[in-house]
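User: Structure please.
Assistant: Input sequence and predicted structure:
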Amino acid sequence: MENANSPVWFITGCSSGFGRELAKLILQRGWKAVITARNVDQVKDIAEGYENTALVLPLDVNKKDQVSSAVAKAEETFGRIDVLVNNAGYGYFSSIEEGEEEKIRSQFETNVFGLVNMIQAVLPGMRKERHGHIINFSSIGGLVGFTATGFYHATKFAVEGLSESLSKEVESLGIKVLLVEPGPFRTDWAGRSTSRTPVQIADYKKTVGERMDLSLEGSGKQQGDPVRGCEAIIEAVESETHHLRLLLGKMAFNLAIEKAEALKDNFNAWKELSLSADYPESEL
């Protein structure tokens, strides 16, 4: 049943994967969902039967005028935006050396600058309400780098740093930030959502080429369940306690712990060399 006080979720990239499943779960709970995609024909079915609580809008996060228009329409329709989900984004497979500038820049435009466009558009309303939740989709690839996806990792590492700073800027304003870091899930990330530059240099056939092949072969067989992942996201948002990062899936959790331990070992291994770069205490 519709509730005037039910939360309003604005979700980008709802045509497939996490965005689509999250929109469905939000509506099933009787909450309000702003369902967006570049092609609205791909998401209209999600809103069927939820005419009073669903708003379907065309949105390319790279187009600032479209972003502004969509946010304004959402606020006009529902009065506010409680939760922004920056889910829109995609992967790009290539060796670093063979990366194509146009594809690299295009991925940064969507994964980083598109996300910034959305954040800047919703913050005025959230600041006014002194309430809100911004969910930025990162990845385990925002913490750990692998072969073949270096440019994708670069975008997600950027999202990680931006989100850390944002969380410190808006916490006192009643706005929370959540970084979602999934491992492999049965979404379309390794399918049509991913761009590829084939490996031509023989030196990269083993490292980059083999991983590209494995990713294609594993698509649709990943351990991660998008529905369960989205339920975890909702639970984290509704929780009375808050943490900046939410890892999703066993592989993501294990890889993150390994990375944290490797960082600590690395820092300690060169501790004395690191400390030697300061002026001696006697000269301060």
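The chain has one domain: 8-270.
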